[in-house]
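Marked as duplicate of an earlier ticket. Keeping the data here for the record.
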Amino acid sequence: MKKAALMFSTLIIDDESAARRILRSMLGKHLASVNIIGEAVNGIEAVQIINEDKPDLVFLDIQMPGYTGFEVLQKITHQPNIIFTTAYEEYALKAFETFSVDYLLKPFRQERLDMSIGKLVSFGRKTEPPGENLKNFLRQFTEKKPAAFPVKIGDRILLFGYDVISHFEADDKYVALHTVDGKKYLTDHTLTNLLQKLPSNFIRVQKSFIINKDKINEIYKHFNGRFVIMMADKMQSRIVSGLTFYESIKEELGL
């Protein structure tokens, strides 16, 4: 008698609606193996849903509001099979293969997803609590960062202590660093890249802003699930949060 194929209960976790939609569509080819039971749009939702629903498989984005994919894996008590979905370069993900089924680089390709599902099916259903080796491996991505942030200006490199930085703002093709004394410096980083370099007191509050939560002077609710954040800098910067960051801001600030 032919052995029945394994069916994997599956979550898609990504803050980009387009990425979730594309994955759902591409997984339609694998309905005999994959049963999509839900989605999450940030790391905080991801931890809750994984621990409650205990899926067999999770497609996990790495850079998200709330918690990164690495932080999600540190906080969950149920360890599903993981397929990372990310825009990171392939070389940065080679080591992850030890702890995950596979990874998919964005933009997704159907043939690459097919390979991942084939690899998953050959592994079988293996879920268990996160081990210490995994937690130790992930710790390097969430531990404290250096004490100063470098900005290159011509032939000089200025070092800014994190306690003098108010926020970062996406400014056309660049990202501007704003200091508490009202000065502004252009960097060649993206906001996504910055989140991997900055210490944990820096949080993203909308697609164009990362703020130092230690430099918030006042915060109050705005309409449509947003916050108005007043920074304690010389310019008294007023930043309106993005709708998709509402829950992660509440979590980060204990609101």
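See parent ticket for discussion. The chain has a mean pLDDT of 83.
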